[in-house]
Amino acid sequence: MRLRNIPGSREVIAESEYVIHSEEGCKGKWHKLFGNDNPIHIEIGMGKGTYIMECARRNPDINYIGIEKYSSVLLRALEKRALEPDLKNLYFIRMEAENIENVFDKDEVDNIFLNFSDPWPKDRNAKRRLTSDRFLNRYINIMKKDGKITFKTDNIDLFEYSLETARECGWEILVETRNLHNSEYNEGNIMTEYEKKFSGLGHKINMMIIRYNSQ
User: Fold this and answer.
1) What is the mean pLDDT of the chain?
2) With helix as H, strand as E and coil as C, how does 14-25 read?
3) What does pTM read for this prediction?
4) Contact 193, 47 (CB under 8 A)
5) Active site residue 123
6) Half-sphere exposure of 37 (CA within 13 A, CB side)
7) pLDDT one-digit tens code per residue, 72-97
8) Catalytic-labelled residue, pool 105, 110, 118, 133
9) Which residue, 59, 120, 51, is CA-closest to 92?
10) Backbone phi, then psi, for 200, in 5-degree steps?
């Protein structure tokens, strides 16, 4: 279970140079913040930052923005981030994913990563899933034409739901695997903390990569 109530976490976040505190003011201006025109990749629900930090290390010519709504979880990411001050292509935001269109402009985001998102298993909460039609339509409004979403989960019900919803919303399925670690797509795969945990327990990892078909 994610930690949510570490005393002082909000104060640390408010003082951190690695967290963007006026994110809505950056809409349409993210390239100015980074000081270059490199592609922008975002991870929604980044947890403790293991995945996005490794992405930033491997790809210095890509700008990364990690989004996390829980202060106590973001605090853990900041502890890691503070150990690598020369990692200039990475910032964090503490925010609710529902507000994504207030933070990024049309055609501003190249790729989105959704890793082991909350499955919200009850039907009444389906709209809260990060791969629901509500969220997929939000992503369309901020992504470039050829932008992609990469989604990984060990939850097969959520995976099947996500595939079906993506197709219904006009997204093209570029990659679909129900056993990532035993597939051709595992080369170069960066594992998240949950991915290491669940695969260690023998769970198969599902992954899809989708692109919106605007035709």
Assistant:
1) 94
2) HHCCCECCCHHH
3) 0.94
4) yes
5) no
6) 1
7) 999 999 999 999 999 999 999 999 99
8) 118
9) 51
10) -65, -25
